[in-house]
Amino acid sequence: MKNIIVQKYGGTSVANAERIMHVAKTVSQTQKSGKQVVVVVSAQGHTTDRLVEKARGISSDANRRELDMLLVTGEQQSAALMAMALQSLGHSAISLNAQQVGIEATSIHSNAQIKRIRTTRLQEELEKENIVVVAGFQGINRFGDMTTLGRGASDTTAVALAAVLEAELCEIYTDVDGIYTADPRIVPNAKKLDEISYDDMLELASSGAGVLHNRAVEMAKRYNVNLVLRSSMNDVPGTLIKEEAQVERLAVSGLSIDRNVARISVTNLVEQPGVAYSIFAPLAKAKVNVDVILLAVGAGELRDYCFTVHKQDIMAACEILEANKEKIGYESIITDENLAKLTVVGAGMANNSGVAATMFEALYECGVNIETICTSEIKISVLIDQRHITKAAKAVHDKFEPMFSKDYTQTEES
Hints:
This protein is α/β, with parallel strands linked by helices. The chain has helices at residues 17-32, 47-58, 64-88, 98-101, 120-127, 154-164, 198-206, 214-223, 275-285, 314-323, 325-328, 355-365, 389-404, 406-413; strands at 2-9, 36-41, 93-96, 103-105, 114-117, 131-135, 138-140, 146-148, 167-174, 195-197, 227-231, 239-242, 254-270, 293-297, 302-309, 333-345, 372-375, 379-385. The chain has a domain at 2-175: Carbamate kinase, CATH 3.40.1160.
């Protein structure tokens, strides 16, 4: 590995001039320790939200290419301001956007994926002893147009740069000081983890935990990037995300909440080969992501297909289904946006019986009804009424809390 540190700073960390200068001092200390530094920044504070609102003020259905052209300006502002801050501290620094860096991406506007990164410019700037500040969240497609990588994807930019540069470490700085067993804003007794496996972190990120972009974790695992999440507000050690973690010895490593869930029920279908394909193929073609799927058995040969999508995709999903109604052969579409998903994650589940029963017991004791259940080797997800998600999360976390303590780990090892 090379003597390079990639540091990513989120929107809260660069929200104003004072915080930008605070971050610049942290970056300065890293370079003074003898490291070459690449910094990736998000847009300041709620800049992206404000830009989206500006677009909606013009059009409720803005062209996605033009929306990407607008949104990338947020990160570019942050990058330029950070470079100025570093220069004011006496450092040689340069800000670069995706085109200048050479981040090539697919053409799916608002949700593009990185295809490759040409490192020539980066290497040249590092050899000049520049601190390179990169605008996150963006790429360039084959037509030379700006594309964005999805909300929160500056994490992915940072991990991708760390991978291609063979960096020693990728540090994700945010407003929390690590990965917790649950969101501490919801579950006050949540515990910070010293380390967590890529697999567990990927499940937590994919299930609603907002601390890391799920594609960033997936990429870190694929290229074995040393990844640390820590706070930009203090010097508290963060959480190391790696291939194998101590916490894997436990059945459960944490839980996550996802309020961005909507369920669609496609009713009264005649069960025959190809029915599922006729539903989900057009959704996949339109890039509508489907999560929990349930086949409900009705009277006779009739079946209902129930599945979840992101709330912002529910209108598009319903339009696609209605356009294919004759081919699919359903009677009606029923939607429910008043749900939330609670997920318990742990690589140790596969070898520990009773995890599901423990979770269901906690929900029973706090009087929360389960709408849908989805399981895998390392996770159990339930859909519940969103009004009860906070109560449910606290109850489930309390039930599993003994597993999160170091004393419990030592007892299990002995």
